[in-house]
Amino acid sequence: xxxxxxxxxxxxxxxxxxxxxxxxxxxxxxxxxxxxxxxxxxxxxxxxxxxxxxxxxxxxxxxxxxxxxxxxxxxxxxxxxxxxxxxxxxxxxxxxxxxxxxxxxxxxxxxxxxxxxxxxxxxxxxxxxxxxxxxxxxxxxxxxxxxxxxxxxxxxxxxxxxxxxxxxxxxxxxxxxxxxxxxxxxxxxxxxxxxxxxxxxxxxxxxxxxxxxxxxxxxxxxxxxxxxxxxxxxxxxxxxxxxxxxxxxxxxxxxxxxxxxxxxxxxxxxxxxxxxxxxxxxxxxxxxxxxxxxxxxxxxxxxxxxxxxxxxxxxxxxxxxxxxxxxxxxxxxxxxxxxxxxxxxxxxxxxxxxxxxxxxxxxxxxxxxxxxxxxxxxxxxxxxxxxxxxxxxxxxxxxxxxxxxxxxxxxxxxxxxxxxxxxxxxxxxxxxxxxxxxxxxxxxx
Amino acid sequence: xxxxxxxxxxxxxxxxxxxxxxxxxxxxxxxxxxxxxxxxxxxxxxxxxxxxxxxxxxxxxxxxxxxxxxxxxxxxxxxxxxxxxxxxxxxxxxxxxxxxxxxxxxxxxxxxxxxxxxxxxxxxxxxxxxxxxxxxxxxxxxxxxxxxxxxxxxxxxxxxxxxxxxxxxxxxxxxxxxxxxxxxxxxxxxxxxxxxxxxxxxxxxxxxxxxxxxxxxxxxxxxxxxxxxxxxxxxxxxxxxxxxxxxxxxxxxxxxxxxxxxxxxxxxxxxxxxxxxxxxxxxxxxxxxxxxxxxxxxxxxxxxxxxxxxxxxxxxxxxxxxxxxxxxxxxxxxxxxxxxxxxxxxxxxxxxxxxxxxxxxxxxxxxxxxxxxxxxxxxxxxxxxxxxxxxxxxxxxxxxxxxxxxxxxxxxxxxxxxxxxxxxxxxxxxxxxxxxxxxxxxxxx
Lengths: 445, 445
Known about the structure:
The structure is a homodimer.
Chain A: H1 3-13, H2 21-41, H3 45-57, E1 63-64, E2 70-71, H4 73-83, H5 101-114, H6 119-140, H7 143-147, H8 150-166, H9 171-182, H10 198-218, H11 234-238, H12 245-248, H13 272-284, E3 292-299, H14 301-307, H15 315-318, H16 322-332, H17 342-345, H18 348-354, E4 357-361, H19 363-368, E5 375-381, E6 386-391, H20 404-413, H21 419-430
Helix pairs in contact in A: 1-9, 2-4, 2-6, 2-20, 2-21, 3-4, 4-5, 4-10, 5-6, 5-8, 5-10, 6-8, 8-9, 8-10, 9-10, 13-16, 16-18
Protein name (chains A, B): MmgE/PrpD family protein
Family (chains A, B): Belongs to the PrpD family.
InterPro entries (chains A, B): MmgE/PrpD_sf, MmgE/PrpD_sf_1, MmgE/PrpD_sf_2, MmgE_PrpD, MmgE_PrpD_C, MmgE_PrpD_N
């Protein structure tokens, strides 16, 4: 049986009612987390430019743009996808290196709003979309990732799967939709050399292309039936080797959305374990920064390769400095988007403490990487007290799940909006299964 | 200097007034030829499905759809691009294996109509678009073509270049536009295994994506500045080896649009030389099919590998049968789209003559392939007369140029439309430099 047919059958057979409770809860957290990122990004240039072009192009008022107003489902998928990948706080699947939210959710939400689908149907669509793109991403990892932005390329299949589910496609139609999705898959990493906005174009376009693929199939437009494993298909063309088993293993039995990692701090993932432990200590006892004599952080070598920077000069560099992030967390008691600012970079208290942070490798922790992303921390106070902590995973990883922290993060990302509206967003998303129309999620806009 | 900058400078420096007269004439023939293909394809399913989806999505009335009505430039580029690649009679560049018309012209025409650009500006844009995609296609040939549908992937750059020219982008903006084009480039050959409609989706999407790339750049959206030659760019990711010199050699001095080949018969290109010679003989003297004792066609081996089929069973197969095409031309005195029909396939006169066609290899002709696509033909009549002809190129190749034949082809492809409207299309296109608004080209719709 072709991989496309196996995927199509899994989609056809998925029912909200049969999803495990933890899968449903997880999907709602993914949607809340996505919404926070989208709301935090929508005023920034990449989203605003795409919104302006979408306005130029016009479109039927089928779905809500995160930037305001309604337009076609294409435009909603495009703009909302791009907006949600700007602040770089969206979720990630480590095994496939895919940010599924930024592609799958805007596609699914736009189609759900258009077709007046329920919250439950949106949840099922998101579960499906995450699952398909994670599986395809794992199949082509690691070689695909060198040239291709997995989030966009593999994400296109996820968006098509979610949209196809919501459009009620048949098995044969879903196979065609996957063909049309794969043949539109694009997104080269070359933009990273310039730090260009293609980073945001990719998920937006992938969401839009996925929706188009499903629409095409619904109307009888055909595509390759073996787009993944075919001789001139996605695997052969875009990876050095591909493991088809990664697509099919447990397909329809386990949903990979629960393997998702959330990012609750605004810094590089390799700094999160230290920030987590500092914040935990501060919850356990009140430690004033000036009473800290030293902080020793031991972790794996890769973390240091990327984040050992005792003198970050820009806000961006500060997010990649383990020393800065650790000190910032101790002083500000938080490491959210707003905490990483120019004023924090010049804050004498943060800078003074940063100089008292020492980083190094712990051989045992290093040996356990990358299965575990661990760290050990020891804080020495002026009175001689030593406080030590150790962790194997940053918070937000599936092994260290979070809920309250995600709601906190959402509130921080939407701090510029009326508090009542923010609480309604939280309420609606966390009770999404009760919404008769999923499109109401964005009704605060 | 980066390739993108070299291309951007060539675009900036191109002026209609400085184009050689033969380049201008050639561009107008390309546009006429494209228009015929688009009008012949618009009623078929792939175009109609895309038009229906475009209508669903809605869009501002900026540009004319070949299927009727107006919509956004995106929708016009998408629908018109797909429509023009259905009857498979659009032009081709042999060195890059690209059908530029089906991507570059719908993108350029939609933007020209939107921005009320003149016929002259459209001509310059088309010349630029053809040139850029041919050059990039040659640079990645032949390895790119194995997996990737060059027309779509390289065509995206051509569409962006043409659209960027018409939008008046600066050098820096054009570089960004090329970055956004390349990172959207997509289109896998896998669909060919199913004979799927991705064949038409690809050029339509490439045209639309190229327009989007130019729009993005105009509003300050950034892309990779070395999208072609960069470490994780188009060349490295999508070809085994690439020759950057093919992009720059003679750039801005010679325009590759004049290397274009036109297809004046509706069959496989490898049958055209024989059809040409039969039609030429029939112009020179009246030969009734029943008086033909035998026809011997000698050509290169590759032609026979693909077209030696003495018993074609379908209309599609008939277009790939050298024996059938030769006999059809002798009986019908034409080998246009309408001539290849089910009734022709059952026509006793065609079938009888087909059995008297012999095909074989001529060693000299074979040795000259692929630089020359030659054939020799000998017709033996019942009265003992032998008529022989030989050619190095099928008509429509740059070495064997055509004009009247293209106008004839246009009339045949639009035979279902009012004759006066058809003549106005021809008149306007062949005098495009006199049109104050290029969008008027489609005003007969």
